[in-house]
Amino acid sequence: MNSSRRLLTVLGLAVTVVVGSGISASASFSDTAALPTVTLDTLTVQPPTQVEALLVSCMPAEDTVVVEWQYSGSRGVSGYHVRVHLSDGSSSVVAKVGASTKEVLVTLDAATLASSPAFTVTTLTSYGWTARSVGYEGPKC
């Protein structure tokens, strides 16, 4: 009797599997959710303002200029680069200073100062964005 029960159980399971596999499954899902309103602000880095270059000394071989500016109003300012722009189109950074500095002494050779260089100051930020000031024409000896 045990073996006939086992046989009937196995046959019943086999019939269930065969019959069940012929029935197609179907499911659907529908739901809605309200999303919060998202706003994006654009960040603008402010360049330094009121950039000026004033002659400190005019020597035969070297000239000293002080470049001054007003701080950038942007958040995260980490420092400033002072750049000299020459009349031939070239430029180079002549000073790298921290965020609390607003003037720097720059020594140039007489030929550079005679070529009417312009100076710009670039705001550097902790998040990698920068902004360059308007150029200011340097003094002449």
Automatic annotation (TrEMBL):
SUPFAM superfamilies: Fibronectin type III (SSF49265). It comes from the Bacteria. InterPro entries: FN3_sf (IPR036116), TonB_box_CS (IPR010916). This is Fibronectin type-III domain-containing protein. It comes from Blastococcus saxobsidens.
